[in-house]
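fyi for ur records
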Amino acid sequence: LTSTPTPPRLDADGKTARHHGSASRRPRQHDTAGGTTTRPQQHDAAAMAARERERERERERERERERERERERERERERESRRAQRKREEQAHKERTAL
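which gave:
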C-alpha cells in the first residue's frame, strides 16, 4: 500500500494555512540563524543626523579628491606647454645657428 501525501488543508479562501495574511512575510524578530535579528526601524533622530553628517563628510572628501585631480591635470598641462615651448625655442635656435 503506497501512501499518497495528504493534500494541504485549504481555508475558506482556498489558501493554504501557511500563507495566510502578511505575518508569514514579516521577518521574525528573534530568528538568529542568520546571525542578524530584524528589528523595527528605529527613527532615532540623533543617529540619522550622524549618518547624514557622515555622508556629507564623504561627499566633501570626494569633492576634495576631484579638485586634487583637477589641479594635477592643470600641472600636467603646464608641464606639457613648457615642454612644447622649450622645443620650439630649441628648434628656432637650431635654425638660427644653421644659417
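The two ends are 115 Å apart (CA to CA). thats all i got for now
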